[in-house]
UniProtKB/TrEMBL annotation:
GO cellular component: cytosol
Family per similarity comment: Belongs to the glycosyl hydrolase 1 family.
Biological process, per Gene Ontology: carbohydrate catabolic process
The entry's keywords: Glycosidase, Hydrolase
Isomerase found in the keyword field: no
GO molecular function: beta-glucosidase activity
Protein name as catalogued: Glycosyl hydrolase family 1
Cross-referenced InterPro entries: GH, Glyco_hydro_1
Domain of life: Bacteria
Organism of derivation: Micromonospora marina
Pfam families from the UniProt entry: Glyco_hydro_1
Amino acid sequence: MSLGHGMGEHAPGRTLLFDAFPVAHHQLLGHGLAVAALRARSTSPVAIANNYSPVRPAGDTDADRAAAAAYDALHNRLFTDPLLGRGYPDALGLDPGVMRDGDLDVIAAPIDVLGVNYYNPTGIRAPEADSPLPFELVPLEGYPRTAFDWPVAPDGLRELLLLLHERYGGALPPIQVTESGCAYADAPDADGRVHDPERIAYLDGHIRAVRQAMAEGVPVTGYFVWSLLDNWEWAEGFTKRFGLVHVDFDTQRRTPKSSYAWFSDLVRR
């Protein structure tokens, strides 16, 4: 919603900013109606996934902390508070005119699993006076970077899982990490092999972070790598490779990377 309708980075390329709230509300309402339809016809577990990011103020000022809280409300709470029965975050000052009586009850239909997509934390500072947004994104320094220029911060996943656990308490269903991965410029060597030690290090660190969160009481029941194959990545097309398996997009030849063997061995053990 935010990238496609709020910021215009993805299709359909709308730049509605906070006026995109009706899109978010109807996505959630559609989810709630789908839960009811599935429950009426199946006993299979029902889940929904959201992309999360722990937020770190760029400075130690009240303005920076307020900006971080606003970004947290938009990125992390907008889609989760109403799912777990809390309604929409007051901090966003959203126009409730789009909602009808009973919508929030439909959205808050119980789910069996909350899917957590995590890639990196986000740095936030107070915006300039003429900014249309109550925050400004800033790079986080001191971390290795992926091909997307995202910081590699495994402990951010542990931080995020603990935040969800503390924020929602008994309302939080079991969690599955439904996306976690990294893009690098992988290519076969002269022998046709694809070595990606950076991805192995990434996955090792993030899986250990999940285990630490579990040891601290967070109910995590699954971890899924993004992704099995190199694939089409939204506005980036075929230029960013997340897969455990390299894909030659001209010939469609598949080559398991060294991370594929590492992850297979980890799962087997």
